[in-house]
Amino acid sequence: MHLTAGLHRSMQRHPDKIATVTGSRRQTFRQLVDRVSRTASALRALGLQPGERLSVLALNSDRMIELLLAGAWAGLVINPINTRWTAAEVAYALGDCGASALAVDDGLMATAQAMTDALPALRHRIYIGEAQAPDGYLCLEEKAAAASPMEDVRSAPDTLAAIVYTGGTTGFPKGVMLSHGNLWASLVGRMAEVPTPPHYITLLISPMFHVAGLGRMLGQTIVGGTCVTVPVFQPRQVVDTMARERVSDLAIVPSMLQMLLDTEGFNPQHLPQLERILWGAAPITLPLLERGLAAFPQVQFVHAYGMTETAASVSVLQISRDRDFLAGPRMRSAGQAGLSSEIRIADAEGQELPPGTSGEILIRGPMVMQGYWGRPEETAQALQGGWLHTGDGGTMDEGGFLYVIDRIKDMVITGGENVYPAEVENALSSHPAVAACAVIGVPHEKWGEAVHAFVVLRPGAALAAAELDQHCRGQISAFKCPKTYEFRDKLPLTAAGKVQKTELRKSVAKGSAA
Fold it and tell me: Domains of the chain (ranges plus CATH)?
């Protein structure tokens, strides 16, 4: 199947249903299909041919949705770019994938105009904002309004659909190549495990330069659901938008749930229409999950595990409110392999390990990426033996429930013992005064590495490191407990809400150098 197949389905079934909401602007599926087909025609009129890369630097909006779908409709390869990147990082991605066109909205125009790198492949700079196009940019809205609708190219499943760059936590970002079939298999696999009814109104909080946000948008086009957008995650704005638009479905990362629950004056009873909260991208602490379950007794909570290289989720866990489940070990799992995925735990040689043994999580299935753009050696290494080597450490029980321990590269080896930061973070977060935390390994003369904790306290809370250390020792083994604690007002987060441990490591390194 192809990315725009969902549009055709919804056009047949729900032509007059609201497809997108951005602020006060609303459009039906009939209007969306018309705008997408005209925008695709305008892109092709510029001379852009199937297979060329269309980079998009924009915040979530209906216009971004239209452009991403129009790129697929025209047979282009869409490349949504991280909105938190610097001009130099944006230029790197454009040069790396050989983008022929760059589309920019008002919120990111300053970043685009700050680029100084020579980009010989970039033929077109496109404006998709709400004002007048800046010098050097053509107004896509004007071009699309004057264009005639074009037929959908309906790309073959193995055709490259998107290049989505990884976060670039080490070295340069890598462009993950996802085909139409990869994305479709991921969507259908997830919806087979966690169905999405047509009446769902989804708030797109996750930016669409991530597969979570992109996939959630595409999933709504398949079932005929509504996408409500907000440009950035601001807790108060999100809460107000959810209440006003009667949002029923939310896909978030744990840090966002934490901030929503901590919003001043937040009352979950003002959101009676909310039916589901799906989280992923980072581990959730048990105290936060329990707090969410208590705040939203009517809401279904679902955990999804996946990554860019798998076009989003490969396993899901539906949280049961049964007392035995909540007290049992499987509440901590990432669920079982989805319909379109196969998961195993393997040793360093790629051999499958018995249940309960820690190793690397390997994945295969139709949703696994085609490879890394322009990086054949890294592609071969990641896909050796026909399995995606995720770099995540985990275990699996006798029932096929997956337990994600942590990134293998984030593992701290202290005194010869392996310590996974997620386990320590879970222990620290169980203290009622802790709002957020992150754990990394730092060099240590005696132990090789030592566990170092960054801690953010709840407003008005006071807590000494010794008290927190005593609490931690009551939760986990002494060798896993932090040797040092650092209290901060906040933690650095990515645009998707993940803690930027690279930035934390840099801050520690700078402090050591000083």
Answer: 5-180 (3.40.50.980), 411-513 (3.30.300.30)
